[in-house]
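Could you help me review a protein record that somebody else here produced? Do not assume that whoever made the record got everything right. The record follows directly below this note.
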Amino acid sequence: MYLTPWEAALSTKVTVNGINEDVSVYIPQGIQSGETIKIDGRGYKNGKGGRGDLILETKIMVPKHLNDKEKKLFDELNSISKFNPRTG
């Protein structure tokens, strides 16, 4: 499941294509790329009359091209944020 950086940072609800139907999924604040979300009973049939779980893996996507306002906002965030993923 693809997410924007702001969706991952702030939380959101997204709709994903499930096995037989679309599924609304809550994305918690601060989710990281590669983390998984499990939706009970929405996966493939398990052969016992029920369904397994639907597992969604998150991928945070960064825009390849920014307009001037987006670039300005990212520059501002960069200047005020203390977050550094390369330090413990």
Remarks:
- The mean pLDDT is 94.
